[in-house]
Amino acid sequence: MIEHNGTNEKELVITRMFDAPRELVFKAWTEPDHLEHWWGPKGFKMNVSKLELCPGGIFHYSQKSPDGHQMWGKFVYRDIVAPERLVFTNSFSDEEGNTVRAPFSPTWPLEILNTLTFAEHEGKTKLTIQGGPTNATEEERNTFEAMRDNIQQGFAGTFEQLADYLSKV
Fold it and tell me: Is the dihedral of CA 99, 10, 27, 154 positive or negative?
């Protein structure tokens, strides 16, 4: 499925079925005690600095690599319909929560708008994430598009961690 985000750019759409009830999958995305167990690259230590689950609220976190490198990121929530949908912008940040450039690319978009939908099906949850740059320059949109395969691989790994975590809670 390919969607357009109003700028004629294709959004990235990833769908994954999880063997867990929708309420639990939604909580895994919205509660610090769950997020710290699975969000981020494999092998990284996750720390939730702040999570305010409301429109305009912020999820501010850090991730530390096995070699000690620390990165900060944040979500700014736009819309929350528990347990059906989450809409937020995602960006890299500094320790204070200010939006900063990605450490790996000076042309990575500052903000990615994400819409997550959670659909219950026979006790399982179909999660669909749609996302793409927002308020981005043409160069930033091109960088995002060039990294599409890497983004999909990253989410595949993160979703594997989520599936593993959900099987244990």
Answer: negative
